[in-house]
Amino acid sequence: MDGGGVRWKNRDAAAIADADPMSKIIYRLQSSLEQSETCGLFSGSAVLIQAGSELTKLLNRACFGRPIITAPPTSSCSLKGTKYKLDGEQQSADLQWFQLGMEEAFYLNYSLNCLTICRSTREGRQNLNAEEIWRHMKERQKMFLQHYKAYSHLRAKNWVVRSGLQYGADFVAYRHHPALVHSEYAVIISSESDVGQARLTTWSDWQSTLRLCGSVAKTLLVLSIMPRGNKTDETSPTCLDDYFVEEFEIRGWIAEKHREDPRSGKDKT
C-alpha cells in the first residue's frame, strides 16, 4: 500500500499528522486503558465501554468506537475500581459511553492486550478469556476471522479503519484521523471461505466497483485472506497465525492517460 491518493482536508493537516503520528496516539490509548482497567460489556454485536474525559479524547483521536447516548443494558461494570450501575441511574457528567465494533474490541483485547471484556450474568459481571470472546464473536459474525485478520493487518500498519458500508466495501482506510484526511482505500475482503457469497466474480462486478471507487476518489484494495496450510482449528484466536494477507491494489485504466499524443508522437505517460 503506497497511499498515493492522499487528500488532506486543509493545508496544515499533513504537518499536524506528522507531529502526532497514529502510532503514538495508539500507544497512549493502550496505556490509558491499562491504567484505568477499563472493562467492556457485550451488548449484542458490539462492546460498550465507559470512558472518562481523557480516555474519551484518546478513543476519538485513535478512531476506536463511536460515542453513544442511549443507555446500555442493565448490569454493572467498573472504571478505576468504582462500580457504576447501568440501570438508568444518573451517571457522572464526565463519563461517556462508547460502542466498539467487534473487530475494534477484539483488537484492543487480543492484539494490544489492554481491554478486558465481560458479559452480564445473574451473578453479576463475568470476565471472559480470549477463547470465550473469540467464540462469541464468531457466532455473531460468520466471517469474523477474515474480517478481523484484515482489520488487524491494516491497524498494525497504523491505518485508521472504519466501516465501508456506505461505499459498498467492508472497510475504508485513512492515513490518519478522518478530520485531517480523506480515506484513501475502499477495502474488500476476499477469502476461500466466502464461496457462494464472494464479490468481484464477474467483469460487471469489477467495473461497477471501480466506477464507484473512482467517483469517491478512492483506490480499491482487495485483501485476500489465505491459509498457510491445511485447515486449522478455528475455536481459538491462535488460528489467526495460520492465515496470511495478500494485498491487491486495483486501479481503473484511463485511456486518455495512456494514448499517444499525436502532436509529439510520445505516450502521454
TrEMBL record:
Residues 40-121 form the tRNA intron endonuclease N-terminal domain. Pfam families: tRNA_int_endo, tRNA_int_endo_N. One of its GO terms (molecular function) is tRNA-intron lyase activity. Residues 144-225 form the tRNA intron endonuclease catalytic domain. It is an enzyme of class 4 (lyase). It catalyses: pretRNA = a 3'-half-tRNA molecule with a 5'-OH end + a 5'-half-tRNA molecule with a 2',3'-cyclic phosphate end + an intron with a 2',3'-cyclic phosphate and a 5'-hydroxyl terminus. GO terms for cellular component: cytoplasm; tRNA-intron endonuclease complex. InterPro entries: tRNA_endonuc-like_dom_sf (IPR011856), tRNA_intron_Endo_cat-like_sf (IPR036167), tRNA_intron_Endonuc_cat-like (IPR006677), tRNA_intron_Endonuc_N (IPR006678), tRNA_splic (IPR006676). Gene3D superfamilies: 3.40.1350.10. One of its GO terms (biological process) is tRNA-type intron splice site recognition and cleavage. Its EC number is 4.6.1.16. NCBIfam families: endA. Belongs to the tRNA-intron endonuclease family. This is tRNA-intron lyase. It comes from Picea sitchensis.
